[in-house]
Each structure stands twice: as structure tokens, then as C-alpha cells.
Amino acid sequence: MSVYTTVTPEALEPWLARYDIGRLVALKGIAAGVTNTNYFVTTTQGRYVLTLFEALQLDELPFYLNLTHHLSRHGVAVAGPVADRTDQFASMLAGKPACLVHCLPGTDVSAPTPAQCAQVGAMLASMHIAGDTFPMSMPNPRGPHWWSVTAAAVYPFMAPADAALLRDELHLQNSHRYAYLPRGIIHADLFRDNVLFDGEQISGFIDFYYACNDLLLYDLAIAVNDWAMLADGDIDNERARAFIDAYRAVRPLQQAEIEAWPLMLRAAAIRFWVSRLYDLHLPAAGELTYAKDPAAFQHVLERHRQRTDFWL
Amino acid sequence: MSVYTTVTPEALEPWLARYDIGRLVALKGIAAGVTNTNYFVTTTQGRYVLTLFEALQLDELPFYLNLTHHLSRHGVAVAGPVADRTDQFASMLAGKPACLVHCLPGTDVSAPTPAQCAQVGAMLASMHIAGDTFPMSMPNPRGPHWWSVTAAAVYPFMAPADAALLRDELHLQNSHRYAYLPRGIIHADLFRDNVLFDGEQISGFIDFYYACNDLLLYDLAIAVNDWAMLADGDIDNERARAFIDAYRAVRPLQQAEIEAWPLMLRAAAIRFWVSRLYDLHLPAAGELTYAKDPAAFQHVLERHRQRTDFWL
């Protein structure tokens, strides 16, 4: 349950008066999500998601909220934020930075079809292109340096063979420079639970709070690793190909990206293997989130090491 | 049928490449609307309405498109425009200024319930408040001066008693000054066909191409005259009261507005009686639109003259 901060209708109503979205009809906590507190807010005018940020500070929010506003303005289906009467997207509520975003219809899909993968791939490419004109930037706080520092903290908890694999892979990644690959705004966490479908039609991307500036190809690899992943950690070829082909039809890959692709898939697997190892072995004091299994991404990585077909 | 300018998929595709909304899947003309050419555009990413402006010039569009963008950003349910990669909302297509807006779900309602009237009234009040922070402005091209000039052109076509009524009403309006009433952004044409409902839930306001700066109370009167109008031109008390009460719950009326209300309802009726008389008797050469019956608003006006209860 992801309601860390309780908001009552009595506390919400005066805050809602900052906005032009009508009067409160219903308020309901949302169980999904592991970092922030979320509520469905229904007013006389529509349905919104209220987010209270449990870690991000008020002055860190403009990047994320202006970004989703920018993408929405350019026709990328995302849950855009609502501005209040002072034209701000966020302000304090119940002691936390808080914002309202439009509520997208639909739900996430746990077993995506190739057709759904293709829709996500095409939209991700549109997002990468639309990000070109976004004027703000944000370094990736979970890039290669973070992987190495975090890996050092979890080696003591790992089986020796697993630790050796991780060391070996980090060494390989650190010996490659991707500076010549196209960079831009990436979602950085476009897993199945961050895309909503309304029936067969994609309804939008959500949860941009890991978004940052990094390699576009890395974002594609993160998404393909999740969207095409089977229960055993292997990759479904049909879903992977549908995702990648649809992406390339909107944003063709450069030759340098095609060459970097096999290693990029491994980099994307390392990112989540490491963070899940950390969350499992070194949870923050009092953390209420459940740790996800790191082994899934270890399997993805091992399979990528053996692979000869990368769906290009 | 309101497709005055034909757009083929072949002509549309290169223009769509200006945007980040995916590739064209389907293109379909829209019969509704009397001024501009409209198409439904379905892409791999979503559904949009393409409008080609038959009268407005490209440099006249920023007011309307920035306005709907502003309202949408503030949570007022409107069909917001989509920006292209140069961050413009409009550009030329098939020789006409053209734009894409998000497609709202639902359809217009021809026989609104009191509950639907209340939703529209509340949203209109939100729109009036959200318009407060919109930085652009537009004088009303169809204000009292336009009524008088246009009435002079149609008197020769009218039955003497009707013409006398119109002269009398214009004289009365011209003898009143409303300069002290709250002004702001008004829709100025919020008839039933310009509001979409998705089931029982309001989905949004459309067609802001008469929007301008004028008296907020005048906008309320225009909307009430249409939303509460019965087939015989009388006003349904229950619908009128639901509309007005919901409006006032969001934006309370000032005492001066309450006093001006009976005459404002008549002003709003005059506006559409006059424009319909003009369209009927003096249609523009080659105009393809069908003229709506002016008599409906003459009846509304006559009923307002006899009324003692104005639902306040």
C-alpha cells in the first residue's frame, strides 16, 4: 500500500481551491507505486491523480512536471500536470510537495502482446524526438558511476560467482565509451507498470520521476528488457522485435547505435540488477516498499551474454 | 457537411511529420461544424481532430490556440492543441491555416438533463476563473456595435412588428452600460453542440473560435438561453436553475451581476437572433452552411420580456 502520507478530504479541500477544477467529490488512496503517495481525486469536473512526494523536494519538481507538460503539449500520451491559479504545478500539502495530474484511462498490462509492445515502442520513439525541444536537463543519478558504487556495497552479500559476473560486466561497461551516441530526455523506467492501456489502445506513459538526460538507446534497452521479458528471465523474440521495429519506424537507429545495442541491453540489465540487490540487502530504515527479485535481471544479463540475435 | 477543403492522406502525411504523434492510420471527414473543415486523424499514437480554418488567418490563431492550451493546462476540460516540433500550434496545410487538437471522448447531447446542465455551468465558471491568468486578449467582434450595424441590414427583410421589437430591444440595451460588471475570457458560443459528454460525465468544451474578452455574465446568459431552451423557445426552469446554481457555487455572482441578469439574458438572445437573421437574409456568396432559424431566439427574447422569475 503506497499511502505513506494521509490526506483527508478536509485537508484537501482548501488546497484544491488553488485550482480551477471544481469541487471535491471523492478521494481514494492508490495501492500501486512504491516511492510516493498517490490518491485518485474526483471533482465535479473530472478525475485526477494527486501525488505527494515522499523523497523529492519542491524545488526538484519543475524538471519532471515541466517535462510531462512539454510532452503532453507535443502530443505524446502522458499524464500531464495541472497548473494552479498562480501557474505552478506543485505546492506543499500535508507537509509534502504535491501535484495533480490528469487521470489517464485504462490499466497496465502484465502480459503484453506484440501489438502492445509495438505501440509502446513507437510512443517511446516519439517521446525521444519530442524531448529534443525540452529546454531543461537532469543528469542521470543512476548512471554507471552509481552502478559501481552501489555494486561495491552489495558484493559482500552476493554468492562469489554472481559477484564475479557483476564485476566482469561492470569492467566491460566501464571500458566502453558511448559518448558518440544520441542523447536526450529518457524515461529511464519504462516498465510495464508505467504504461496504461485502454483496451488495445495505449493510453499513456506515467511516472517520469526517474526521467533524465542520457543515451536514447539505453532507454530503449531498459524498455525492451522488461516488455519482452518472460517469466524465466529470457526474452520473447516476437515481442522484442515488435517493440524495436516500431521504435525504429519512428526514430531510425544510427549505425553506431546498432553496433552498441548488444552491450546496451546488458547495461540496462545491470542497472536494475544492481538497484534491486541494493534494495534487497540494504533497505533504508523504515522503508515500506517490498524488494523486487534481483535474480530476474541477472538472468536477463546472462541470456544477453549468450545471445547472437539481438532483433536488429 | 463541413469539409470545404479536401485533404488526402498523401497530402497529410508530410505535414504530420512536423509532429511527434506517430504515423497516420486513418483520416475521416467530420460532418458537424459550420465554419471550418474538420477531420478525425487517427495515428499510431492516438486520435486527434484536424481543423483547417476557412476564414481565420494564420496570424489570428495564436489567441484561440494559446487560450485552449492555457485552459487545458489549468484543468478545464477542453480539446487542447498539439504543438509541432518547432513548438507552433498551427501552420499551413492545403493552402489553409491548420491545427491538430486532442480528440475528446463522447458526443454532444441534444436534450440535456438538469444534472448535465449543472456540470456545464460549473465548468463554465471554472473556465471564467482560469481565464483570469491568460495573458492575451481579443475584443468581441460580435458585440453591441455589431448587433446595431447588422440589425440595420436586416430590418428591410423583417415583418414590421418584429423589426419594431428588435429596434426597441437594441435601444434598451444601448441605454445600459455594463462597464462595472466582471469581464474576462468568454467562450461566447457555448451551445449544446460545443460541449461533449462521455456518458453522464462532461468530457469537454470545444470550438473556441468565438472566444474573446467580454462580460462573464453575458457568457452565462448565452449558455443558459441554449442549454435550458425548450423546442418552443421557452426556458425549462429546472435546467436553467441547475445550470445557474452550479455556476454560482464555483463563481458567486456579484450584486451588480444579479441586478443586470434579466437584461443580460435578453442581450444574449439578441446576439443570436441578429446573426441568424443576417445569415438567413444575407448569406455570403457561395456559402455552404445551412441557416439556423432566427425565430427561436426571437421567442426566447419575447419570453424573457414577460418573465418575472429569472432563477436567481
UniProtKB/TrEMBL annotation, chains A, B:
Keywords: Amino-acid biosynthesis, ATP-binding, Kinase, Nucleotide-binding, Threonine biosynthesis, Transferase. The keyword Protein transport does not apply. The keyword Cell division does not apply. Pathway: Amino-acid biosynthesis; L-threonine biosynthesis; L-threonine from L-aspartate: step 4/5. Residues 27-253 form the Aminoglycoside phosphotransferase domain. GO terms for biological process: threonine biosynthetic process. It holds the Pfam family APH. HAMAP family: Homoser_kinase_2. Belongs to the pseudomonas-type ThrB family. NCBIfam families: PRK05231.1, thrB_alt. This is Homoserine kinase. It comes from Microvirgula aerodenitrificans.
